[in-house]
Amino acid sequence: MFPFYPLHGNDYYTQERFFYNNLIEKNDLLYRPFTNEPVYGDIYMYFLSNGRRTENIFLGVVTKKGKQGHWVRYWDNGNKKDEGFYINSRKDGLWIEWKEDGFKFAEIFYKNGVATHLTNCIVENCP
Fold first, then answer.
1. pLDDT in tens, 34-49
2. Residue 65 and residue 86: Cα distance in Å, rounded?
3. Cα–Cα dist 114/127, whole Å
4. DSSP readout, 47-110?
5. pTM for the complete prediction?
6. Which of 27, 88, 94, 124 is the one with CA 20 to 30 A from 114?
């Protein structure tokens, strides 16, 4: 369904695990709060149940060139929010977006970060 974009050489390395819940996103890049230091590595998200952390879910990878490869983001209730591919922090290919209730909202095709086609799944049938 989604194309594979390999990461090569020095573009991909993992400093450590970072949790999206504890980061700040500006201009499609992720930073540590207070220090504004950019983060590079594997990005995860955790969910809370009764005030306790539950599962850790892998969202994607950030390199010095930005977000790379397959990414999935989630609503706080655990439902998918959007899913697609990044190349150097620019969306590329098919992106699917869901509403917080889990209903598929849109299918959007991107080329180098620019939306080239939008299917509104509320109005049209999306598979």
1. 999 999 999 999 988 8
2. 11
3. 23
4. EEETTEEEEEEEEEEEETTEEEEEEEEE-TTS-EEEEEEEETTEEEEEEEEE-TTS-EEEEEEE
5. 0.81
6. 124
- The token duo for 22 is 């504890």
Query: Quick check: helix, strand or coil at residue 10?
Result: helix
Q: What is the DSSP letter of 6?
A: -
Q: How far does Cα 34 stand from its chain's mean position?
A: 23
Can you tell me whether residue 46 is helix, strand or coil?
strand
Tell me the residue length of the chain. 127
Domain that holds residue 35: 14-120
Q: Is 102 left (phi over 0), alpha (psi -120 to 50) or beta?
A: left
Count the domains in the chain.
1
Contacts of 22 (CB under 8 A, 6+ apart): 32, 33
In-domain check, residue 69: yes
> Is 126 part of a structural domain of the chain?
no
Give the pLDDT band of residue 1 (cuts 50, 70, 90): very low
The residue with greater pLDDT, 78 or 50, is: 78
Among 85, 82, 88, 80, CA closest to 62: 88
